């Protein structure tokens, strides 16, 4: 079992009711693995808008750095980058910056920052602060449902996460009924960003 697999299991089992069992299992896993400062992988995404039958498909790769934030790069059908950090959210394409939102001035941006960074960096405390949760563990894997505690300024009604040895998929359901499903592959831990990745976070 890889380090990222052990980290993923530890993260999500920690949030599932059944405290004594979860603590015992987490302690065993934490004794074997350390959380990687950087995680990278590939994704495929399907979005279904409420009232629209056609699905919107995209794919690309992501990079998570504990200190820098999350970089989400869509390669198909149109190249676009989404960077989430404590400073804000920036969306760009090959010609330049399309949108730049400052977390200091936009409360909703701050929430999205906390949400994305919590999910992808393994910040259990932040997830518990933002969501009520329930989950299940079977011989085939685990699942976790998150519902926001503060619904007034949150764009999502529900978030579902599932996996086995690592995070396999995440589904977001918006208040309007839009569904976004993301599947992950080739998830790999690393000690540091490479030079190209570091440049993309600037």
Could you give the order of the helices and strands?
HHEEEEEEHHEEEEEH
Given helix and strand content, the structural type is alpha+beta
Largest sheet: 11 strands, antiparallel
Low-confidence stretches: 3-34
SS field, number of helical segments: 5
What's the rounded overall pLDDT mean?
A: 75
CATH class: Mainly Beta
The fourth-level CATH homologous superfamily is Lipoprotein localisation LolA/LolB/LppX
What's the short version?
By secondary structure, the protein is of the alpha+beta class.
Characterization of the model:
It is built from 5 helices and 11 strands; from the N terminus they run H-H-E-E-E-E-E-E-H-H-E-E-E-E-E-H. It has 202 residues and is of the alpha+beta class. The protein has one domain: Lipoprotein localisation LolA/LolB/LppX (outer membrane lipoprotein receptor (LolB), chain A, Clam), CATH 2.50.20. The longest helix has 15 residues, at 107-121.
Secondary-structure map:
Blueprint: H1 3-13, H2 19-30, E1 38-48, E2 55-65, E3 69-76, E4 80-85, E5 88-93, E6 96-102, H3 107-121, H4 124-130, E7 131-138, E8 141-148, E9 156-163, E10 167-174, E11 179-190, H5 195-200
Antiparallel strand pairs: 1-2, 1-11, 2-3, 3-4, 4-5, 5-6, 7-8, 8-9, 9-10, 10-11
Helix pairs in contact: 1-2, 3-4
List the defining traits of the structure above:
alpha+beta; globular; 202 residues; outer membrane lipoprotein receptor (LolB), chain A; 5 helices; single chain; 11 strands; eleven-stranded antiparallel sheet; disordered N terminus
């Amino acid at each position: 079992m890889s380090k990222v697999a052990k980290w993923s299991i530890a993260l999500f089992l920690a949030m599932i009711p059944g405290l004594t069992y979860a603590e015992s299992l987490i302690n065993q896993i934490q004794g074997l693995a350390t959380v990687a400062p950087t995680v990278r992988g590939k994704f495929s995404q399907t979005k279904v808008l409420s009232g629209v039958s056609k699905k919107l498909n995209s794919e690309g790769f992501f990079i998570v750095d504990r200190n820098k934030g999350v970089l989400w790069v869509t390669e198909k059908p149109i190249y676009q980058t989404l960077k989430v950090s404590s400073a804000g959210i920036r969306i760009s394409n090959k010609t330049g910056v399309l949108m730049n939102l400052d977390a200091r001035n936009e409360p909703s941006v701050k929430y999205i920052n906390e949400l994305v960074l919590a999910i992808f960096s393994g910040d259990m405390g932040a997830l518990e602060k933002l969501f009520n949760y329930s989950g299940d563990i079977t011989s085939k894997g685990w699942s976790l449902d998150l519902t926001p505690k503060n619904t007034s300024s949150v764009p999502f009604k529900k978030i579902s996460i599932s996996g086995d040895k690592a995070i396999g998929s995440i589904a977001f359901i918006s208040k309007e009924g839009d569904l976004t499903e993301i599947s992950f592959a080739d998830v790999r831990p690393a000690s540091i960003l490479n030079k190209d990745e570091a440049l993309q976070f600037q």
